[in-house]
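Hi team,

Filling in the usual template for the complex we talked about on Friday. All components are listed, including any nucleic acid strands or ligand strings, so the model treats them as one assembly.

SUBMITTER: L.P.
PURPOSE: interface mapping
COMPONENTS: two
RESIDUES: 451
SEQUENCES:
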Amino acid sequence: MKTMTIKYLAFLCLALSLSRAQAFDLGQELRNAARDLQKPGSSKVLGGYSEAEEVAIGRQIAGNLLGAAPLVPDRQLQKYVNNVGRWVASQSERPDLAWHFGVIDSRDINAFAAPGGYIFVTAGLYRLLNDEAELSGVLAHEIGHVIKKHHLKILQQSKIVDLGGKLIGKQVGGDEKISNLIGSGAEIVSRSLDKGAEFEADRIGVVLAARAGYDAYGLPGVLQQIGHTAKDDSSSVALLFKTHPHPDERLARLGDAMDSRFDGIKGQTVEKRLYRIK
Amino acid sequence: MTLRFNHLLLAAMMLIATAAQAGESGTTVKADTLKAAPFSDAKVIATLPSGAKVEILKKDGGWYQVKSPQGNGWIRLLSIRRGGAKATSAGSELSGLSGLASGRSGTGRVVATTGIRGLNEEQLKAAKYDEKQVTLAESYLTSRADAKKFAASAKLAARQLDYLPDPSTGESK
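RESULT (copied from the run log):
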């Protein structure tokens, strides 16, 4: 009975938020929603979008982010991160999504995920990496956000909260309807997810990297490095620290979760192959 | 004579190596045991309290080899926070352990030639959609099959592993 009520409420929220967006085929959405509601515990109830819509939303966020910081103009580098990223993503529940990875031209230390499998690492973060296992860990954390639809869920929440609010971003470029949904530019990537979502992405990150054959301690290594760098250069991590729990806290949580589970699992660091930015 | 010179060279090299290894300090973030080898069932040398100062010598998977007042041994990487008061002679601490872990001590970090811009909230908010850049980003797509070949070329093999449970709820996600 209780479950029924919750489902009904979820459905109502979804319907309400959809009526505000109006951007998408409402009939189709309701059919999808109805179908999803029949699967107990389906995260799609919260995500609420078809894969095509998810990719369209992500693509626009990616385009806005690239408007702020374009790709580092190095074809080999970009191809390399796509190779590593796609291999790691192949170990996830969404191996056939068209995953895209890129290194963007910014000295800031950060990484971003947009729905539909668009993932970007800043050149500042990339330069901290010591080996391919560390890169795999960073990308795997972002892949975790995508497969758990963490950003789609905050879009859904913000729509509910914004009910009755003004529509913005008419001439942002790209698809106007999606602009209405995601807000100004790439502001959405600077919004914080809840801490639980970050810890979850960390746990997924170490597992996906290890599944791909890498040393599971790549991501923890990067977190240690970031915590350390922060003391010398706080401006480069300002946004990262604002939107994520402190690396020490993330490491402590990861330590509890990993415990001795990875003791027998040796992975590779693939240090020699790490592509160095020129 | 040549032999002597070689000796000196060797001694000098050893000195340099030691200097590079006398790398970075660290602090335990929780009480943990110091082991004789990097395995959980290795012999326990000592138990370090939380907040103990150590010197990090080497990394192996999930373990750091450390020097501590209670002895030298191996401790879980995630029980250590890197950094502390100690400055190293070989440049910044940033290059210390990373170089050590990867055997690239002394090469230093490349000075940034790209990536001069920051990326703050205002810049993100003001960002204008760039279709050309997205198309370019998408052009680098790697297929699943090619990714597999790429992995195989570094002898990376996929393996089965369950996701980690959330320790705060005790449930697996």
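MY TAKE: Chain B touches chain A through 74 residues (CB under 8 Å). Chain B is about 30% helix and 25% strand.

Thanks, L.
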